[in-house]
Structure formats: structure tokens, C-alpha cells
Fold:
Amino acid sequence: MKYNTLIFDLDGTLIDTLEDLKNSVNYALGKMGYPPRTLDEIRCFVGNGVARLVKLSVPAGTSEEDTGKCLAIFKEHYKAHCAVKTAPYDGIIPMLDEAKKKGLKTAVVTNKMEEAAAEIVKGFFGERIDVIIGQRDSLAPKPAPDGVLKAIETLGAEKADCIYIGDSDVDCLTARNSGLPVIGCTWGFRGREVLEREKADFIIDTPREIFGCIC
Structure:
């Protein structure tokens, strides 16, 4: 195979997290006396980490102090409710099982808080994912390459053997910044039009199609 290491985004790529993210955002907004956000609004806001998600969700003109308070409420609520409605997309688990049978290395690199990311990944995928890199103070968030490069180092992989899989413009830019080719997933939060605009190297409609891109 041309690539033996798969580095995945999480939200919108392996799992559908929108409902739980929306519910935690709206819980925090409600506690602050702010109006709620719709699912489509949350879909547009995700991708650059939870601080950015909350900053976009609070009303325009909200102070940094109050935005910080809202973020803290969100984090506490989401930590306890991050897997209520969240679930893997169809075909993800069979794809990961096949990847393991083929001896491929796997990692998740996400802007999600690492504790929540680890809980979700381990809960849904068990040992199918070798390395989980989430939001850490020591790493710049995507689209910076820090998390991807850390995953490659932790896996003991060669960059030339790696390919990145994601669903958004942020993911395409992350892959580009990391020096990796990118597979764009149309089933996620952004869709084919965004992936085409961002010039993803491959665009796929089902998880199984990953294997046709790495041969």
C-alpha cells in the first residue's frame, strides 16, 4: 500500500457529535441568559476547538470575561454529556476493523478536549485507534500541524506513509500544513462543495472507499 498510516479527524469524520455539542452549547448559553443556537448554526461553528465554538455561539459583543464563563459552563456540561446522542457514522467500525486486519496504524487528531476525545474514542472504538491526540496546552490546535506531527511521532510512523482523513476546510488546511495528502469525507459537517473548493486529494462518500485511496 502507498500509505500504511491513517490519521483521522474525529467530529464529522468518525462520529456525529452535533446533537451533544448543540445541547451543551445551549445549556451554557441558557445559564448565561443568552438565546440558543440551532443545529445548523452549530454545524457551521465547529472545527476550530471549543473556545472558538463558544465564542461564535455567544451574542455579538459579549465580553471576553462572560465568554470565558460560558466556555467553562460548556466544558463542565459537555464532559458529562459528550456521548448521549453521539454515535459513529455508518460503516466506520467495519472500516476500522478492516484497517486493523491490514495492519494499518491509526490515530485521531482532534481539537476536542482530549479527555472527552479519549472517552468517546475508547468508548466507541476500543483498541481500533492506536493514538488519540486532543486539545492540549502544549500543542497548537488545528489547522496548525502540531497534533498531526505528534501523532506521527507517537506512532513511530514515517510522514511519507501517512494520509489524513477529515470532513472540513479546517481538515484540508491541517493536512496541507502537515505536508500530508487528505481524503475528504462528504458525510460530515461541511459536504462535497467545501471539500472540492479546498482541493482535497480524494473525496469519498463512504468509509469503505478509504482503501481505494491508499493503495
About this structure: The chain is about 45% helix and 15% strand. The first helix runs from residue 18 to 31. The domain at 5-16+86-214 is CATH 3.40.50.1000 (Rossmann fold). Residues 117 and 134 are 6 Å apart (CA to CA).
